[in-house]
Amino acid sequence: MTQASFVVLEDRGVLAVSGADRRGFLQGLVSNDTEKITAENAVYAALLTAQGKYLHDFIMIEPDGPENGETIWLDGEAARLADLKRRLSIYRLRAKVALDAKPDLAVAAVFGDGALAALGLPATEGAARRFGDGVALVDPRLAGLGARCVMPRARIVSALTAAGLNEADFVAYDRHRLSLGIPDGSRDLVVDKSILLEAGFDELHGVDWRKGCYIGQELTARTKYRGLIKKRLFPVRIAGATPASGAILNLDGHEAGEMRSASGNIGLALLRLASVDTLAREGNPAKIVAVTPDWMRLDPD
Asked: Model pTM?
């Protein structure tokens, strides 16, 4: 692990869901329980199609302080924030909610040795606290990934530097993420095609199995309880040229999986579970070694 650092994630943006009905409105739509969202706890979730396929994923944050009013921030992909707003707006109907992009807010990732301590956070997924005029939180997917900070764009760099953190480049954080096997939105999941459980959303705290109905809930539950997962997104070590995202990975003339995001000699690949043991053998023809991260559960409960 490297020294505690931060990087402002220019590919992330914030959509504010505000109003008296904000929690109930989201509860009927997303994969996690919005009742878990507090000023002290952030939650990871996804929006799915009616067929249980991936559309968007985001971190749901409740900012502290009266200046923020009745608001839940969605930390999502900046380039797709307008689409997220459009899709949520379809279901607004008479709900007392407003959906507003917040371009004045920025999202930073904080990672490395001492990252959580620098922000006064415990090593507990989702733990959150006020940080200046924003929020600092442990990444709700995996504490080992580090923390996130959401605050006004004009002050985020100075605030994190004042906390004793060094500014890094995106590549350093991306390689850290890849080494842990954490997907990065539509870089690693295919919109309208990917299944949450193939990408680890169960182990990464992105699905609540006890909440009420939400869009795509029935098919997501069926996938889990009938053991229908045949592929998983794995971190991989790459020898030689890095395959392009979307490249088909072949082994002994048979399709073994598909490459997703990568940086240099590490990446993520969606692999057939039957192929993983073969891919993991040193010197295999694909020159790709699959790694099973500590958080991943391959055996059914």
From this structure: 0.94
